[in-house]
Fold these 4 entries.
Entry 1:
Amino acid sequence: MIVGGKKQVVAVLADQNLFRRFPLATTSSSPAWAIHQHTKAKAVHPDVLPATYYNSLRIFTRQKVLPGAQDVAHLDTLVPENEGEIAFSVAGATKLGGTAEARAGSGIKPRHAPNQEITIRIPERLSQTAQNAEIVGALQSVRYTPKNVGLKIESKKRTLLTAMSNKLEKWEDRGWIETPNAETLKALAAALREREAETKFAVVTRSEEGEEADRLARTGAEKQDTDQIDLQIPDHLQLRGAKLSTLSQRTAYRGIKALKEKVHRKATDENVLNTQQAVKSLFKKAPTEKLIWKSIRSKDLSRQVRNFMWKTLHGAHCIGKFWAHIPEMEDRANCQHCGGIETMEHILLECNRPGQAEIWNLAEALWRKRFSTWPTVSFGGIMGAALATFPDANGKDSQSAARLYRIIMTESMYLIWKIRCEVVIQNNGEPKTTTEIHNRWVALINERLEIDRNLTNQMRFGKQHSLPPSLVLETWKGTLLDEDKLPPL
């Protein structure tokens, strides 16, 4: 409903038939009794909810319809209609997980057909996680099986069993708001509801078919071309919106936020892409956009630094081209010292006014007290400093090294900005002396060290907000004055 140019949240009555749960059986087994799974299955047949307004009133019912796709899902069924219960082992795998280059694959191994193997590469528009790939594998298994044939879907993890037996009703009641992999889970639930025969989900930790499904999933993740997955749901199986009677204010607010179209800002997209490329160049992994935004909320960063980085990624500071179209203020677009356009990259890395060069030299000198290699400083590298990874002697990521790096980089960055603002706004362009810059940087780092030291007091700050003394000592070791005189922990 559109009223006065604004979107209004309206409630509608849902079709009561959609509340009926599909026949479902769940099985959890260990290798010791895996051959007896079928006798230990517990059937779940929830009753139809009473047709009352209390259960039927739903909001957020105007949802986007997914586009259709020519799909691997609609291949010929792999099971004759006169078969009894058949089983598929499904698995999911991901390559370069947690990065912008992640690739997920599904593996499906039919138990009734030893020579058949199915590999699927998850489309890029879907979440590239092993969990989502496993859900897709289950969806395809359902579509490969006639509706009147009993079906058992086996996997090593409890993801599918828990999702379809314990969490589905809750997710549907809240309208799938903030539910990971909602698109694929909704399609799986709809496909199961269309079935006439019983469906079982089993957890089988060890089996030949399970190992084969794992191998097929890894193969699927390696495929060059993605497989298109049709996630459209027939209208008679659509359960749109969230149940009003069970909706919390928090969830409702997030549902309203989700109705808004995401606005792409050119400056933001460019800065995020720059950060992804820089982090990949420096640390060999390109972070996702979501991971970049999460990283600038790191508790190792001060509130002022977090706010500054958020505005910087959005290009929201009043510098450079911001002033170019404001009458009588066009000259503010240029650097007072260099004369060129004053971008944030220019301020942090390029301006030859005393400040940035001296501070980065001090940061490098402190870092080299512990490490021989200093990562190249770039604008994207600074914005992605909280995503830095450094291997320790065993080849594992060093938490203390990454923490020291993000503190040095972000505090140095923010000090450069503060000095620039003082010079331009307060001192009418008069630069700071190198001695003052040096002393302020040393005082700043010592202040961060003191904050870390104080945060080790668990009695004062509590377990949740305090820092382990070992982490603080590991972070700053090799950089402290008279470190050899410190008492042991």
Entry 2:
Amino acid sequence: MAEAQELLLQLQKDNRDGRLRKQELEELVRGLEAESESLAARLQDLSERERGLWALGALQTLLLLPLGVVALPLLYLALVNPSALRRGLARPGSDAALRRLRYTLAPLLQLRARGLLPA
């Protein structure tokens, strides 16, 4: 009888230890699930940020492309034939065009000199 009693006590102790271990494992699983959800949300945020940065990089490339299209031929021209570049940029208009412009703007310049137009 004493042996059966000891066996029963041992089984009860093992059962209690098993329940405690099960509770510990359940708490551990809940913690891991929460961490997994947190990491999944962080991964989603990083993916969205990466897409945004990729789009920004593509936009910058598209905006700088026309500058390269204009700048590279000018650089080539400046290195290969600098005199052609100077001739092309020397004067945007003729003397006659500048005289006409001065004649047209003279009344406005007089108004500005009298303080009737902002400087």
Entry 3:
Amino acid sequence: MFSKLQYSILIYCTIIICIFDYRTDATNVTFIPTPIRITVADLPAPFTTQSANKDGNIIPVPSDPQISVSVGFTVKLFIDDLITPRFLLYTPTGDILVSEPSANRISCLVDSNNDGYPDERITFADASNKISRPYGMAFIKGYFYVANSNGIRRYPWIRASRQISGEGEQIMDIDPSGHWTRVITMSPTADKIYIGIGSATNNDADPLPRASVQLANLDGSNRTTFAFGLRNPIGLAFHPVSNELYVACQERDGLRVITMSPTADKIYIGIGSATNNDADPLPRASVQVANLDGSNRTTFAFGLRNPIGLAFHPVSNELYVACQERDGLGDNLVPDFFTRIRQDEFYGWPYAYMSPNLTDPKHTLSNGSSVRPDLVARTRTPDVLIQAHSAVLDMLFYTGNQFPSSYKNGAFAAFHGSWNREVGTGYKIVFIPFNNDNRPMGHYEDFVDGFLTNPRGPDTFATPVGLLVLKDGSLIFTEDGNNRIYQVQYQQSTSNSHCQHFVSVVFLIIWQLFSFLFKHEIN
């Protein structure tokens, strides 16, 4: 049996191990971030390089993965064993929802012992609730909204419930072809919803509401086009200070995202195109806005190939979108982008990209003029251009208090990674800084990197997707390659972090030693 001294040492070791966090399963390599700025003048001519077809090769997580993170921060595993985790959302009672489209379900992650980490997964919704490839989610005025590939459904939500019941109400139908992801956000006035709808093609002309941002009442009524020409408006968010709407867009590449207006009276839905660069009819490739019940849906912005992220800035209340752009024009065309969007703006897809001076070859006549010069002339230049084929998949504004003040009200974006580039790119989390006027500074910088182990493969052990700021101010993100969620925390000094990890390892060794002594009943 143990002596009193051995028992005492065991108790102290247990206490110290509980204090020091040993969840880190990766070696963190810190770096000082540098601005990455891409301008219209930097863009090559179409077909300067051949168009590659190289999907990312998902490799198992290495036994000692090397994850790069901005200096002062640490990255560690938050939870694993999910099924293609995508979008993240807090419930009003503090649980975490994660959409898992390939499993056709939404999971509720519960922290039952209040240690800051989920220890239970409950199915919040599945096919029995008419869930169909769920992506964007929102809680608005007593309802739970989900952006399925085939439209927007809402369900009455009973406070503290960890499962929804019934089939809910389909408040808006959307063609599920092409870009199937849908993003949705609520207006700062909480009376409208904005929906991002990707195009049906890569760069063929789709009729509205494809490749646009749509605006509607909360019940889905009175839907109109808010902005258009956005191939795949994959992220939408209102700025936390200015309340202006920003979009992150993936060019020429279906997801649905949804966000609520800051006034809580509208919902905004991003709907991607059905194709790469064929013209899709609206509401494809647009952001739609509607009433909270889905009525009065209109197009808010369009020409957005796949508007995959939508969010209102927390100060300006302007709507921002992250958009995936078109493929097939070469390694460095066409940039994805992040930008503020306003009513009736057009962002080029499929006739132009980034500027009225850059027309898509597929829609250019032999004399050099566009088949739609009227729309080309309206093409807006986005606020921040992103390396082509990065495949931005989500964005959010940082409103927590853990990170340094320079991150406050700036945006984070998740890059899922390329398939249409000779040398792989993306597979990381980036930060988009804002200035004192609550506008983007025009560049982005790497924040978490290192998952791409062989760019020529490309080989990667993580494909980032969804983002969420936790209540303690840390950041978590999903990745659907090895089905994990990672957590990023700020440390006062990286040396403290390394010391903490070292001490944890030492005491784990001590614990194993005394377990051995106990097993052999050594006095």
Entry 4:
Amino acid sequence: MPNKKLSTNVVIRGSIARRSRGFTLVEVLLVMAIIGMIAGAVALTLPSSSPSERSPQDLAITLKEQLQYAREHAMVRQQPLGLHVDNQGYRFLRWYDGQWQTLDARGLKEVRWSDTLRWELELTEGNLMAQDESARQLLFQPDEDQEAAAEEEQEQPPQPQILILPSGEMTGFSLALDNRNLARQQQRWLIAQNAWQILVQEQPYERY
């Protein structure tokens, strides 16, 4: 009996010792990132008005939140992402299997805007190797087989203007949004990414 009690005590002491160590900093940060992704996905999937009914301000704020979520997504999954903007709207892309593919993740789905929305994208210099075209092509060079298959289908995958790396780095940019029909009555909304900050600013249209 004494031996059994001693063995039991040792097991209990060992259990307490293991629990007293707690979580490591990496584990805490990983849990926080996952919680942030879940919260962001829930917020971004809430019902909202269609893009044609939303103001440039609403679209700018939504894109800012999506970019922040995309950065967390890239860091947690360690997968490069990109953002492609055109006259139809914007979409998030992922680098997978040697080519850029449209990302259909919750909270990062394609957004199309109205015909009256006007946009202007400018990439800033001195930020990330994405501004170095040779380095960009070397790292994200399409797979030859995938490229040939795309040519046969006569559909080239879109290329991102903005890169989001697994390290959290993002191409520096500014994206201005306004309504071409109400330009004189409304302000122009500017989304800017500088280092690790994504800002939404209101600027008078007369400046442009």
